[in-house]
UniProtKB/TrEMBL annotation:
Pfam families: HGTP_anticodon, tRNA-synt_His. This is histidine--tRNA ligase. HAMAP family: His_tRNA_synth. Belongs to the class-II aminoacyl-tRNA synthetase family. One of its GO terms (molecular function) is ATP binding. It catalyses: tRNA(His) + L-histidine + ATP = L-histidyl-tRNA(His) + AMP + diphosphate + H(+). Residues 26-329 form the Aminoacyl-transfer RNA synthetases class-II family profile domain. GO terms for biological process: histidyl-tRNA aminoacylation. InterPro entries: aa-tRNA-synth_II, aa-tRNA-synth_II/BPL/LPL, Anticodon-bd, Anticodon-bd_dom_sf, His-tRNA-ligase, HisRS-like_core, HisRS/HisZ. Keywords: Nucleotide-binding.
Length: 417
């Protein structure tokens, strides 16, 4: 109907004031360690050619087979809203030849991602992540640094009730040896047709199946950690050595596979037990074959994606979210129309100097405008009328105790400091 109220799409989590202050704080704290480690911003489109995710993420994954928002654009092209960040970053690195320069390429990104999942607390169809990618160097020390950056992000939030789980998914030699025995084991099971077909594409996917009956039968399946080549075993041992040196606590989870097919070698996930079923707050790993799969050089890479939505829920659960208030430094009130231009100009000048200034609008009475200043949480108040304009002096009032001083308008910034 014409006047029917329009609502946000189902499964979309919106952040509005004042809650958005906490969301912004969490996002900034999570990405701060990456900036300190030399990562630079990469802004990417929220939609890509569908083939990028089919090839990069893997057709055996739930992400590709069940969860992508895919549509045909006006030009008849198949387009998908990004379900994750790494494939898009790799496409951009290849396309812009960043991999031909200084290595590793170290970038960070943040924004919305999209998966057509059943909405529940902590699981949304539009969700927010921050992530980093380090591309072009195969070094266990780099693996450890990437993991430590994620760990520091969660520590920045004051989180304590989480754990880091790590494993190695090995190299091609490791996975080939393991695949033979794993497929033989799976053939001995009584699985439904869809699960059998999924296992044929990537048998490791069955370790990620959450159905109780599949979890039970896979509990006796051969583990990839027992098939690691000498190279993969030594690489994983070095990662653990470096993590211990950095003071990053971890446990080894030999059944971890993550939800994306491109992972190889070091793989990790952060789990928070205070969030119920949606306990994963972030994770990542190495993806040594992804660039070549997408048409680039055979270079290695490692990265992570951290869930801002879930990290915020974890901070709330642990009561580590600080009070987030927006308090302007100064609230300006114009007593009459003749003072409005001067008030607007004064506000603009002070903002250029880095002062947060709010202005009363709407021709309210003085009493109503002062009430608005009080509600805004501003620290100081100045009222300007014809007398103030003529003398060049204003009364600077401190809102919390009513203390007032007379100040020249030209010296307001210094007085506030």
């Amino acid at each position: 109907m014409k006047n029917e109220k329009i609502q946000a799409p189902k499964g979309v989590r919106e952040y509005l004031p004042p809650e958005s202050r906490g969301f912004e704080w969490v996002r900034n704290q999570l990405i701060a360690p990456a900036k300190l480690a030399g990562s630079q911003l990469m802004e990417l489109p929220v939609f890509e050619d569908t083939s990028l995710f089919n090839r990069g993420v893997g057709e055996s994954t739930d992400v590709v087979s069940k969860e992508m928002y895919t549509f045909e654009d006006r030009g008849g092209r198949s387009i998908t809203l990004r379900p994750e960040g790494t494939a898009g970053v790799m496409r951009a690195v290849i396309e812009s030849n960043l991999d031909r320069g200084q290595l590793p390429v170290k970038v960070w990104y943040s924004g919305q991602f999209f998966r057509a999942e059943r909405p529940q607390a902590g699981r949304y169809r539009q969700f927010y992540q921050v992530g980093i990618e380090a591309i072009g160097v195969d070094d266990p020390a780099l693996d450890a640094e990437v993991i430590a950056i994620a760990d520091r992000g969660f520590k920045n939030l004051g989180l304590k009730n989480y754990r880091l789980e790590i494993t190695s998914l090995g190299d091609n030699e490791s996975r080939a040896a393991h695949r033979v025995d794993l497929l033989n084991y799976i053939k001995s099971l009584s699985l439904d047709e869809a699960t059998t077909a999924r296992a044929a594409l990537n048998p490791l996917r069955l370790f990620d199946d959450k159905r109780a009956e599949v979890v039970e039968v896979m509990s006796k399946a051969p583990l990839l950690l027992d098939y690691l080549s000498d190279y993969s075993r030594n690489h994983f041992a070095k990662v653990q050595e470096y993590l211990n040196a950095l003071g990053v606590a971890f446990v080894i989870n030999p059944r971890m596979v993550r939800g994306l097919d491109y992972y190889t070698g070091t793989t990790f996930e952060f789990i928070h037990d205070g969030l119920g079923a949606q306990s994963g707050i972030g994770g990542g790993g190495r993806y040594d074959g992804l660039m070549e799969t997408l048409g680039g050089q055979p270079l290695s890479g490692i990265g992570f994606g951290l869930g801002v939505d879930r990290a915020l829920l974890a901070a709330i659960a642990e009561a580590s979210l600080p009070e987030q208030s927006f308090n302007a430094d100064l609230f300006l009130i114009a007593l009459d129309e003749s003072a409005k231009i001067s008030v607007l100009k004064l506000a603009a000048d002070l903002r250029i100097e880095g002062v947060t200034v709010e202005v009363s609008f709407g021709d309210k009475s003085l009493k109503g405008a002062v009430k608005g200043a009080d509600k805004s949480g501003a620290q100081y108040l100045v009222v300007i009328g014809s007398a103030e304009l003529e003398s060049g002096l204003v009364t600077l009032k401190r809102m919390n105790d009513g203390t007032s001083i007379s100040v020249k308008m030209s010296e307001l910034k210094g007085a506030l400091a």
